[in-house]
Specification:
This protein is an alpha/beta fold. It has one domain (3-210): Class I glutamine amidotransferase (GATase) domain (Rossmann fold, 3-Layer(aba) Sandwich), CATH 3.40.50. It has helices spanning 14-26, 39-44, 56-64, 69-79, 89-92, 198-210, and strands at 3-6, 33-36, 47-50, 84-87, 97-98, 104-105, 112-116, 128-136, 151-156, 158-162, 168-173, 177-184, 187-190. The protein has a nine-stranded mixed β-sheet with strand order 2-1-3-4-13-12-11-8-9, with helices on both faces. A four-stranded mixed β-sheet has the order 6-5-7-10, with no helix packed on it. The radius of gyration is 16 Å and the shape is globular.
Length: 213
């Protein structure tokens, strides 16, 4: 049950790979974790993870720079319906449009747009960075053994605004509710970084490794 973490130049993926390896080891799961920029390895994997750090347009450009990678991602996520996890900008890319430094087309997998965070408390700083409590808004197997109030680590200036709230699985309060997790079918995504979210994050990753949509 291999897991492909896509490497397209968006930050250091070592922490993500180590977190997935630890979760697999502690759950006694035989899940090889592969960090790869090879579209064929993405196609061959049983589960796919798309991380992302930085600006929406830069991340999309990084994926476009890898010949065949966008096609491989869409094949895995949509055609063969493998469990797919987007993290941070990896989640934002699943939207129709990103509004960061202009308008940029996303994958369009979950209807919505990525907009600047505008807290109603002007004392709150942007980016939203650090630990915050999750509010789980919809039951989902990915949140098994995780409760509302669990701590998650965030670092972002833009948030995913879903067109249909049915796709919102969790929120975080930061001068107003911000989408923290979304999902439909075999697709799941988080604005928080599970690989940096300690016990809760490891549980979330374990749930992903076991998840059978």
């Amino acid at each position: 049950m291999s897991v492909a973490i896509i490497d397209y130049g968006s930050g250091n993926l070592r922490s993500a790979a180590k977190a997935f390896e630890r979760a697999a080891r502690e759950a006694n799961l035989k899940s090889p974790i592969i960090v790869t920029a090879d579209p064929d390895k993405v196609r061959d994997a049983d589960r796919v993870v798309l991380p992302g750090v930085g600006a929406f347009a830069d991340c999309k450009q990084g994926l476009n720079a890898l010949p065949g990678m966008i096609d491989a991602i869409e094949e895995a996520a949509l055609k063969t319906a493998k469990p797919f996890l987007g993290i941070c900008v990896g989640m934002q890319l699943m939207a129709d449009t990103g509004r960061e430094h202009g308008d940029h087309q996303g994958f369009g997998w979950i209807s919505g747009e990525v907009m600047p965070i505008k807290p109603n408390d002007k004392l709150l700083k942007i980016p939203h960075m650090g630990w915050n409590d999750l509010t789980i808004t919809k039951q989902h197997l990915m949140f098994e053994n995780i409760v509302s109030g669990s701590h998650a680590y965030f670092v972002h200036s833009y948030g995913f605004v879903c067109e249909d709230n049915e796709h919102v699985l969790a929120t975080v309060e930061y001068g107003g509710a911000i989408t923290a997790a979304i999902g439909r079918d075999n697709l799941i995504a988080t604005q928080f970084h599970p690989e940096k979210s300690q016990a809760m994050g490891l549980q979330f990753i374990t749930n992903f490794l076991k998840w059978k949509p």
